[in-house]
From TrEMBL:
InterPro entries: NTF2-like_dom_sf. This is Nuclear transport factor 2 family protein. It comes from the Bacteria.
Amino acid sequence: MKKLLLLGLAIILFTNCNQQEKRYTQQSPEIEIVKKAIENYNNKKYDITLYADTSKTLFNSSKALMSPSETIAYHKTNDAIYSSRGFTNEDPEYEMVVTDDGETWVNCWLNWKGTLAANNKEFDIPIHLTYRFIDGKIVREVGFWDASAIALELQAIEAEKTASEN
């Protein structure tokens, strides 16, 4: 009887250890939501239904939080300076992780290409985006990229414009 009880406990312990929640994956519903958000951005279809009402976005900042509607305004303002822009399909990487605290995050590494409307100069920039999810909705979006080449080009365009007016 004792051996039967120990065998039963060993089976329960072994079964519970093997039913561990996935902490890392490259296929999940959350990744599909991020891919939809990227597709929407590329199509200039700004759909905030993927985001929780309380979602906050940070782009190249640790303090300038934007709501979903402010993020759309940010994108629309930036869209005005490009004749074309969007994420490419060149080796995108997506991963979902569940942190030790139980938070669900999707990370992605993408290439972005854009052409300035003012002078047709093209830019190709690697971008890292990460999204936190709660109940299937994005509650936080954080993006980092080096926009210095674009900023310098816009400054040069503005300087040239000012010089020609004088």
